[in-house]
Amino acid sequence: MAASLQLPMASSIPSSSSPSTTRPIFKTHCSMKPTCSAKIPMPPINPKDPFLSKLASVAATSPERLLQRPSGSDSLPFLDLFDSPKLMATPAQVERSVSYNEHRPRRPPPDLPSLLLHGRIVYIGMPLVPAVTELVIAELMYLQWMDPKEPVYVYINCTGTTRDDGERVGMETEGFAIYDAMMQLKNEIHTVAVGAAIGQACLLLAAGTKGKRFMMPHAKAMIQQPRVPSSGLMPASDVLIRAKEVITNRDTLVKLLAKHTGNSEETVSTVMRRPYYMDSTKAKEFGVIDKILWRGQEKIMADVLSPEEWDKNAGIQVVDGI
């Protein structure tokens, strides 16, 4: 009984006395049969993805179609499996919620410009450098593509192409680029000055839709001549070329401000000889804005009497010169 249970190990292991004996070849049970029904296990796939589902079915039924591909094919890999190739079944669904719920964070919270963009708000809060210009123009184009009939709200707190100390940080064309983009939009553009609108930013404030240009009560607006860039070790001929370009930009700025404020070019050119600061009241008189906001309730404030009318109805006599 014990002898019948012994495995024939001696016949398969070569002895040391016979070096010429070859090592036997062990074969699996699947290799002994000419037809093996074992399949390569497929990884789990998304059942809603039509491309992966089609690719998996082709790999299971006729894998030679994947292995024997023409080398000089112009199409993308495996797209010829479809009669009418398409990469996605449906467009990507973008989550559009009113607010981000921090208690159920499905993904990282969006950045602040994206949240403002959802409310059709474009905020210009930095000097006009190339990065700011690129973002603002892209947002304006995107909002028009989303809905060409809804208004766009542009909030401005910007020192233009200079810093607050007057140092030049950007080219004048940065402001002209945003201005041209605003003029190309089909939407109404509501401009609101919060803080400061200086130089080119004042032009953007005045370039809003007529009747839709607003300013906070304590905001400031200022128009000034463009700054000459630093010459450094520049040759004299190049300095002259730069100076002519600055004068050209100044004339363009004067024409655009005169167009949107309703003043003559001579008036605008005269006040621009030196920095011309305007509070909300003076900016309204100059034609830069149309209304002064108080807590954003422009409709309510439009029906309220002016301070002079209030004083007159209350019997208060205003002394001139105070």
Descriptive account of the structure:
The protein has helices spanning 2-5, 29-32, 50-61, 64-67, 112-118, 130-146, 172-184, 200-206, 236-261, 265-271, 280-286, 298-302, 307-314, and strands spanning 121-124, 152-158, 189-198, 213-215, 220-223, 276-278, 291-292. Helix 7 (172-184) packs parallel to helix 8 and helix 9 (236-261) crosses helix 10 (265-271). The protein has 13 helices and 7 strands. Helix content is 38%, strand content 10%. The longest helix is centred in the last third of the chain and has 26 residues, at 236-261. Strands 1, 2, 3, 4, 5, 6 and 7 form a 7-stranded mixed β-sheet that branches. Strand 3 (189-198), helix 8 and strand 4 form a beta-alpha-beta unit.
* Binned strand content: 5-15%
- Report on the biggest sheet: 7 strands, mixed
In round numbers, the mean pLDDT is 75
Give the proportion of residues in helices.
25-40%
Shape estimate: flat
- Would you tell me the structural class of the helices and strands? alpha/beta
SS field, number of helical segments: 13
What's the N-to-C terminus distance?
128 Å
User: How many beta strands in the DSSP annotation?
Assistant: 7
Question: Radius of gyration over alpha carbons?
Answer: 37 Å
Q: What ranges have pLDDT less than 50 throughout 5 or more consecutive residues?
A: 1-36, 84-100
- Secondary-structure element order, as H and E? HHHHHEHEHEHEEHHEHEHH
Short descriptors:
322 residues; alpha/beta; seven-stranded mixed β-sheet; 13 helices; 7 strands; disordered N terminus
